[in-house]
Design brief:
- The protein is built from 8 helices and 9 strands.
- Helix 1 packs across helix 4 and helix 5 packs across helix 8.
- It has a 5-stranded mixed beta barrel, surrounded by 4 helices.
- Helix content is 33%, strand content 23%.
- Bound molecules: hypoxanthine (HPA).
Length: 266
């Protein structure tokens, strides 16, 4: 754990109180509403030295610490993507801070395109596994043997089961699938989508995978849910754009919020 992360955790405790969050939530494009539902203290990333700028529209770069459904949470309203800086470890410090605050679980959310015939825009998908199609790794340069992180059950089976139960209780379908990380910021070509479908992916997006690797490195248990905003390139006539992603994300976001609230209340 870096010294900076410990210092930032002290700073955050000074503003939000000493109680440790049980769980961290990272909100994807157009999914920021959940941060407003938390009864707690919001801290701008700009007040946390070393935190990324997280400047993509549709993100709200604040850390909110407080209560949601009786659970102490730390909600990261903005994420930094690899494509903003060329740094695969852009989210390392925020996740180190989460760990330093005492959390042991992390739920990541994202907007994604679907390659699965039965997973459509407006649906959710629980990640069962991923394909690192970008080939980058946020732990490149890490010096210790801890860098050899096992990724066999990277998506925590118990958290997945609990999230599925929460989804069932809310009557929200939550199919599981494999997410492929594409670096962005350009979208994929139809040929790339055909390729990653053949490789076994069900959805594609520009985030989450480096954060899962970093979180497992830090010993956090992880789950991730995609909000499907479109069929991936070449699979439908709809246009694919960031505007479209932001416009479509709220369709799944309302369902996602119900699942997460139910999960936290359990
Ligand atoms: N590709 C990559 N990222 C995305 C997509 C997509 O089709 N939709 C939302 N985020």
């Amino acid at each position: 754990m870096s010294r900076n992360a410990e210092d930032l955790a002290d700073l955050i405790r000074g503003r939000a109180g000493a109680e440790a969050p049980a769980i961290g939530l990272v909100l994807g494009s157009g999914l920021g509403h959940l941060a407003e539902a938390v009864d707690g203290v919001a801290i701008d990333y700009a007040d946390l030295p070393g935190f990324p700028h997280a400047g993509v529209s549709g993100h709200n770069p604040k850390l909110v610490i407080g209560d949601l459904e009786g659970t102490r949470v730390a909600v990261f309203g903005g994420r930094a993507h690899y494509y903003e800086s060329g740094r695969g470890d852009a989210m390392r410090l925020p996740l180190e801070v989460l760990k330093a605050l005492g959390a042991d679980r992390l739920i990541l959310t994202n907007a994604a395109g679907s390659m699965h015939p039965e997973i459509d825009p407006g649906d959710l998908m629980l990640l069962s596994d991923h394909i690192n199609f970008s080939g980058l790794n946020p732990l490149i340069g890490e010096k210790t043997d801890a860098r050899f992180v096992p990724m066999t059950e990277a998506y925590d089976p118990d958290m997945r089961a609990a999230l599925k139960s929460a989804a069932d209780a809310e009557s929200v379908p939550l199919p599981e699938g494999v997410y492929a990380w594409y670096s962005g910021p350009s979208f994929e070509t139809p040929a790339e989508i055909r390729a990653i479908r053949l490789l076994g992916a069900d959805a594609v997006g520009m985030s989450t995978v480096p954060e899962v690797i970093l979180a497992r490195f830090l010993g956090l248990r992880v789950a991730a849910i995609s909000t499907i905003t479109n069929k991936a390139a070449g699979l439908s006539d709809e246009n694919i754009s960031h505007e479209h992603t932001k416009a479509m994300a709220p369709l799944g976001a309302a369902k996602l919020e119900r699942i997460i609230r139910r999960y936290l209340a359990a």
